[in-house]
Amino acid sequence: MYEVKSITPVTGFPDHYDVPFKGKAKVRSKYRYELEKLVGFEDLEHRLVIQWEGVAQGWCVKINTFNKEVVQLMPKGYVRDFPGYLEIDLSFRELQGIVNDPNANAIWHKMLSSVGAVYLIADTKEG
What we know:
By secondary structure, the protein is of the alpha+beta class. About 15% of the residues lie in helices and about 15% in strands. It has helices at about 25, 90-100, 105-115, and strands at about 1-10, 30-35, 50, 70-75. The longest helix has 9 residues, at about 90-100. The protein is extended and about 55 Å long. The relative contact order is 0.12.
């Protein structure tokens, strides 16, 4: 949860920001928002799943603009859904989280322990 501290009008996405992808929303940007992370919501970070339908493709909405139903609260230590055997691609941090918290990531442990396989862990910095 963030509070908007200031809004600055812009024409398009500023060139001096180095971002990997500049889609329509960024190229057609009209405002730059200065945000401040609010204290008191840390326990819900990366765990709260809300219904985002009817909000188009906006990355942010005013809290009182649309009713956003809480769909699920994931357990503490939850990393992410198991994507299927052919789609597994984890960062080291994600793998560490799954291994260190088997209760919150029980599906991962169940699925990976039910098959005989060889897993590759690659060092993305040094090979």
